Amino acid sequence: MHLPLAEALVRLWAAADLRAELVELFALLIERTDHLVTPLDWDRADPSPIPLQLHGRYSRAEVFAAFGLLNEAHPFPGREGVFFDEATQCDVFFITLKKSERLFSPTTRYNDYAISPWEFHWESQSLTREASSTGQRYIHHVERGSRVMLFVREENRRGGVTLPFLCLGFADYVSHEGERPMAIRWRLQRAIPAAFVPELALAV
Questions:
Q1: Rounded to whole angstroms, how far apart are CA atoms 105 and 164?
Q2: How far apart are alpha carbons 181 and 163 in whole angstroms?
Q3: What span, in angstroms and rounded, lies between the C-alpha atoms of 97 and 156?
Q4: Contact 58, 40 (CB under 8 A)
Q5: Which residues are within 8 A (CB) of 12 and not within 5 positions of it... i.e. 6 or more apart?
Q6: Are 170 and 120 in contact (CB under 8 A)?
Q7: Tens place of pLDDT for every residue, the chain, 204 residues?
Q8: How far apart are CA 154 and CA 152, in angstroms?
Q9: Helix crossing, 5-14 with 16-32: angle to 10°?
Q10: Rounded to whole angstroms, how far apart are CA atoms 91 and 135?
């Protein structure tokens, strides 16, 4: 039986024993939680323009939907590993650390990895040049007022299930080497929690 939300809440509030049990359960779950998500800091006084949480886990479709890019006109977000959202001036990177030959072509098996809890090594798309508009936006994003947001997962699938991406939040450009692709070093604005160190294969 499906009840309207308002009616369900009225019934829940009337069940004092059930409410007390839920309070105890929530306290236990908090004790067992190895990390807590927090709102992304957009440096704005008003509410966040994107309903995503730092260190939350999301599918690619959920990220696109949060940016308002998943709708009837664009029902499928595609498989691109990067996109730039004009409305928020934010570059979003989807990063899979373990890239299988079956799912990733030689030109898309980029060398991406966490250097430390604060820094991440990422390779751009294979045709990105330093002098291109995209390359320059990556390098000068701070002074130009745009942002870079990283979403990372260890592998594409596990046990037949597609894995979600972990939101590492915003990152700032540190340096880069080469081009086509550009190997860029990013510094995260918030460190990777210790709970995620094994799955992100920290190179430290």
A1: 21
A2: 26
A3: 9
A4: no
A5: 18, 19
A6: no
A7: 667 878 888 888 888 888 888 888 877 766 666 567 888 988 865 677 899 999 999 999 999 999 988 877 776 666 678 999 999 999 999 999 887 655 555 555 678 988 989 999 999 999 999 999 999 999 999 999 999 999 999 888 888 899 999 999 999 999 999 999 999 999 999 988 776 766 665 543
A8: 7
A9: 100
A10: 11
C-alpha pair distances (Å), 178 with each of 43, 82, 127, 155: 32, 19, 11, 26
Which token pair is 165? 């991406």
Q: Residue 71 has which token pair?
A: 């709708």
Write out the DSSP string of the chain: ----HHHHHHHHHH-HHHHHHHHHHHHHHHHH-S---EE---S-SS--SS--EET-EE-HHHHHHHTT--SSSS----S-SEEEETTTTEEEEEEEEE--TTTS-TTT----EESSSSEEEEE--TT--TTSHHHHHHHTHHHHT-EEEEEEEEESEETTEEPPEEEEEEEEEEEEE-SSS-EEEEEESSPPPGGGTTTTT---
Enter the tokens of residue 40: 């992304």
